[in-house]
Each structure stands twice: as structure tokens, then as C-alpha cells.
Design brief:
The chain has 2 helices and 5 strands; from the N terminus they run βααββββ. With 109 residues, it is an alpha+beta fold.
């Protein structure tokens, strides 16, 4: 759709991945930064960011915020700038929304 120009020049990209954390765990290590190395960004965010860089290349700018407060993040927001458009990535372990990748172009999405 992008290569053939079906939706026109990209204006923005928005992604949401996640949902309520419901996996059975045997210990609290999943929620310890020292033991797990990170939260939702490390868990599912790597796949989302990998897909975006595969599609669009390396971003020109990266802005990041999360709710870790010294532990692992359950929610984070990543804003990326790719040439002529911005991409917003929201990742969550407690926000119930459908997973979605939306590419907004001049002629459609």
C-alpha cells in the first residue's frame, strides 16, 4: 500500500500493543528491573520498534516516557520522527485496548 501510493504520502503512524497482564508467574522477578532488565518496552516494544524501523528506516528523533518510577514500566510512550511524518507508539500491560497499527496517509489509512 505504501510502495504503490494507495494511501498517499504518510502523515502519521500510531501503534498500540499490549493489554492487561494476565500471565501466570512463578516469582516476582518479572517485575524487578535488576532481574528482568525492563518491562513492557523490552517485552513487546522491541518487536514494534523493529517493525517500524524495517518499514521506515532509522528514526531522526526519539522521545520516550514511562511510568517505571524505579521499577519496570507497565506503560510507555515512544514518539518517533521519520523524515516527513511522526509515529506514536503506546505500549501497555494494564490498558485494555485492541492492538492496532494505523498508517494515516493523504488519501486514506
Amino acid at each position: 500500500m505504501l510502495d504503490c501510493g494507495m494511501i498517499g504520502r504518510l502523515r502519521s503512524v500510531s501503534c498500540f500493543e499490549g493489554g492487561a497482564f494476565q500471565w501466570p508467574v512463578a516469582s516476582t522477578s518479572y517485575f524487578s528491573f535488576a532481574e528482568s532488565g525492563g518491562g513492557v518496552l523490552r517485552d513487546i516494544g522491541t518487536h514494534c520498534l523493529d517493525l517500524l524501523t524495517w518499514w521506515f528506516g532509522e528514526p531522526d528523533e526519539i522521545h520516550y516516557a514511562d511510568d517505571a518510577m524505579g521499577g519496570v514500566e507497565a506503560n510507555c510512550l515512544v514518539r518517533l520522527r521519520f523524515g516527513g511524518f511522526d509515529a506514536t507508539v503506546r505500549l501497555s500491560r494494564d490498558w485494555a485496548r485492541p492492538n492496532l497499527y494505523r498508517l494515516e496517509g493523504e488519501r486514506g489509512s
